[in-house]
């Protein structure tokens, strides 16, 4: 079974989105995070940060679960092939 490179690229893009998501919460978006920057951003930038959070939260965790649904069959096949060659 060939490696699915597009899934790797999508997973890396989602990881970057998760990092941006947590930085967004720390710098002024709505939500709770263990570190909040003391000087909060202005209301206009807070609006855009909250908008980014709303769009981001609507899909990124669902995509991670979807990828974990697709990848284990390939990993199991790979393990079976590895042990059957020995």
What does this structure look like?
The protein is mainly alpha-helical. The protein has one domain. Helix content is 73%, strand content 0%. It has three helices and no strands. Helix 1 runs antiparallel to helix 2. The longest helix is centred in the C-terminal third of the chain and has 26 residues. The protein is elongated. The model has no long low-confidence stretch (mean pLDDT 76). Keywords: Membrane, Transmembrane, Transmembrane helix. This is Acyltransferase 3 domain-containing protein.
Looking at the structure, what is the overall shape?
elongated
Main sheet overview: none
The oligomeric state of the chains shown is: single chain
**Total DSSP helices:** 3
Layout of helices and strands, plus pairs?
Blueprint: H1 5-26, H2 43-57, H3 60-85
Summarize the structure.
By secondary structure, this protein is an all-alpha fold. Helices cover 73% and strands 0% of the residues. It has one domain (5-85).
Looking at this protein, list some descriptive labels:
86 residues; mainly alpha
